[in-house]
């Protein structure tokens, strides 16, 4: 696959850092904005979608781009920091063109687009010059042949048929859930459904937790009930409870009945508390160990990469049973304390009665004051008998303290001079 000095493949462009002339990073490329021509003329690249600080996506016109290669993008001038909004005549290269079904005009070969090449013309315009496609396989388990053809040789981009998501997800594979959620949120509704359907349950659950409520409800409502229940099981119980609470009662009850009984029980328990209380926003999956567990065992548990930093900051030492609601809470071992103790020391010997415990009915403001007063990132929630019900973390607290719709990140009005 030969390339000209001014040719870049889209698959290599997404995720590249964007720098100003002084070498300071502006953001990362997330997509390309394309306008399709009515004739066979190559589609024109009018700009880049760049993710800047705060996970805001902005539009960077190609007129502000001075250099593109396989390692970086250099820009100059004044960049408008207003949030990117796709116009009716615009198409996103990664989100809407990869995985599109196209046909080679002359040979009739049909295939799926897995990459696109952009070239800079003599007039400095960037256009899509090449289309990389993979033929449909005629043998099970074998991939079809690949072809790289000129833009004018294919047809199919002008239609709005169903798309797969294999190559889009490959391009976005390295993204953190929060960043992928930003990309999905900004996609057209149809494409959002297609991408969500192609994600595995665990990845989709992680992304749903980062999306605004209306997107969560829309995506979950488009899934078959059985799969929707499976995705809810993969979500944190507190996030699943918040999402289910937004659904019509009949739909919510149906999904709860399809979930595993233990998972559904955790969600139902959380839904029994008022939303803006410790019980309503706690997680039921903190790290819980018995008093005869050792410091070494505790440190091994908090190394779990699936734990959020706030949940990994402490171990809750309880009498059996160890699943919330547990036996009596003996105390909390914070990670700094654990690191100062010999590995063979039993947890019961280093914790005392916890003064950090919160009542499940405590209001949001009281929880905030409690965490701030004791410099905590998490605190146990206990019932009147001293049993651990869950833990409130600072990220749960911020999620409820921030204004409704904060995940939307409203457009700013400033400009960034680069």
UniProtKB/TrEMBL annotation:
Q: Name one Pfam family in it.
A: PRC
Q: Does the keyword Secreted apply?
A: no
The record ties this protein, via SUPFAM superfamilies, to: CBS-domain pair, MgtE N-terminal domain-like, PRC-barrel domain
Keyword annotations from UniProtKB, A to Z? CBS domain
Spell out the Gene3D superfamilies in the cross-references. Answer: CBS-domain, MgtE N-terminal domain-like
Residue ranges annotated for the CBS domain, each copy included? 282-349, 350-408
> InterPro entries, alphabetically?
CBS_dom (IPR000644), CBS_dom_sf (IPR046342), Mg_transptr_MgtE_intracell_dom (IPR006668), MgtE_N_sf (IPR038076), MgtE_transporter (IPR006669), PRC-brl_dom (IPR027275), PRC_barrel-like_sf (IPR011033), SH3_actinomycetes (IPR058838)
Protein name, as recorded: Mg/Co/Ni transporter MgtE
């Amino acid at each position: 696959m030969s390339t000209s000095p001014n040719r870049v493949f889209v698959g290599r462009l997404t995720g590249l850092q964007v720098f100003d002339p002084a070498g300071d990073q502006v953001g990362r490329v997330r997509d390309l904005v394309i306008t399709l021509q009515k004739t066979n003329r190559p589609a024109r690249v009018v700009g880049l979608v760049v993710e800047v600080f705060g996970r805001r996506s902005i539009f960077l016109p190609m007129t502000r781009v001075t250099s593109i290669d396989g390692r970086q993008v250099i820009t100059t001038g004044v960049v408008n920091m207003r949030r990117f909004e796709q116009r009716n005549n615009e198409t996103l290269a990664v989100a809407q063109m990869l995985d599109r079904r196209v046909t080679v005009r002359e040979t009739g070969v049909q295939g799926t687009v897995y990459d696109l090449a952009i070239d800079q013309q003599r007039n400095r315009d960037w256009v899509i010059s090449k289309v990389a496609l993979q033929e449909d396989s005629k043998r099970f388990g074998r991939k079809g042949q690949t072809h790289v053809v000129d833009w004018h040789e294919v047809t199919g981009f002008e239609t709005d048929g169903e798309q797969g998501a294999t190559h889009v997800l490959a391009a976005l594979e390295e993204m953190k859930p929060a960043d992928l959620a930003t990309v999905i949120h900004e996609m057209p509704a149809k494409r959002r459904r297609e991408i969500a359907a192609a994600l595995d349950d665990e990845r989709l659950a992680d992304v749903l937790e980062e999306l605004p409520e209306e997107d969560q409800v829309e995506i979950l409502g488009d899934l078959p009930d059985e799969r929707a229940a499976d995705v809810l099981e993969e979500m944190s119980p507190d996030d699943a409870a918040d999402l289910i609470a937004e659904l019509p009662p009949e739909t919510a009850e149906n999904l709860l009945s399809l979930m595993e009984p233990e998972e559904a029980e955790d969600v139902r328990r959380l839904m029994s508390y008022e939303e803006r209380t410790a019980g309503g926003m706690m997680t039921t999956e903190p790290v819980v160990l018995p008093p005869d567990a050792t410091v070494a065992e505790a440190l091994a548990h908090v190394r779990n990469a699936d734990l959020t930093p706030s949940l990994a900051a402490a171990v809750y030492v309880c009498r059996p049973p160890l699943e919330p609601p547990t036996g009596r809470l003996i105390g909390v071992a914070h990670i700094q304390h654990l690191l100062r103790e010999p590995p063979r020391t039993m947890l019961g010997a280093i914790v005392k009665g916890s003064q950090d415990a919160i009542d499940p009915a405590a209001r949001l403001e009281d929880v905030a004051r409690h965490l701030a007063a004791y410099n905590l990132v998490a605190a146990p929630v206990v019932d009147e008998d001293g049993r651990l019900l869950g833990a409130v973390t600072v990220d749960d607290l911020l999620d409820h303290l921030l204004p409704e719709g904060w995940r939307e990140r409203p457009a700013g009005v400033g400009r960034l001079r680069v």
